[in-house]
Amino acid sequence: RQMCIRDSFTVLPVRVPRGRCIRRRSRTGTIRCSAAHSRTGARAAMRYSPFRHLPSVISHSRPVHLTYFVTRRCNSRCPFCFSLRSSSVREHAGSELTLEEIDRTARSLRNLLWLAFSGGEIHLRQDLPEIARTFYRHNRPAIMLFPTNGMLPELIYQHIQDILKSCPRSTIVVKLSIDGVGPAHDALRETPGSFERTMQTYD
Asked: How many CB atoms lie within 10 A of CB 143?
């Protein structure tokens, strides 16, 4: 599993010659795996590799990047944001897609290179891990991006832990939105205490 704060990376499978065995050291001794198992693991890993999208990128034959606005709700009051602002986490919920609608949308798409979630504050969707699992199951994104204002450190931590466990072959990128240091950040977002909570999420 991979979790990045500022950058993203991809681990590519290594071809194993037929009949060879991979050995790696661990604290408990040498772990062996057969070449057949290694080839199976390599094929599975390649299904999530960004290189599998090269033909579509070159030919422009199908979309490989999706940005999905999961909610318009937000717990910040940024005056420069185009999204609807609200201090109530219940308001605007009726305009959000249900899990069933999201599942139908994901099924209508093919494999994705890049899946970006957006909002609003995406972690106000309590079912965000299930949404991520839905796209992971149907679209096998190589990279999934989760931008956040970082104001819900405990909830964000739990959501990302759940997503890391259920989407092990995708690179999970968490991007924190910071517009200044300390009071400058709070003033720009018109949300007192937001910088401190964002730093708690970073830590």
From this structure: 21
- At position 74, the amino acid (one-letter code) is C
Amino acid 131 reads I
**pLDDT (tens digit, 9 = 90+) per residue, 52-107?**
555 555 655 567 889 999 998 999 988 888 765 444 445 555 679 999 999 999 99
The region that residue 68 occupies, defined by phi over 0 for left and psi between -120 and 50 for alpha, beta otherwise, is beta
For 163-182, write each residue's pLDDT tens digit: 999 999 999 999 999 999 99
DSSP character string of 32-83: EE-HHHHHHHHHHHHTT-GGGGHHHHHHT-S--EEEEE--S--S---TT-SS
**Whole-number Å distance between alpha carbons of 23 and 118:** 42
Query: CA torsion angle for 131, 137, 140, 142 (degrees, to 10)?
Result: 50
As a whole number of angstroms, the distance between CA 146 and CA 135 comes to 13
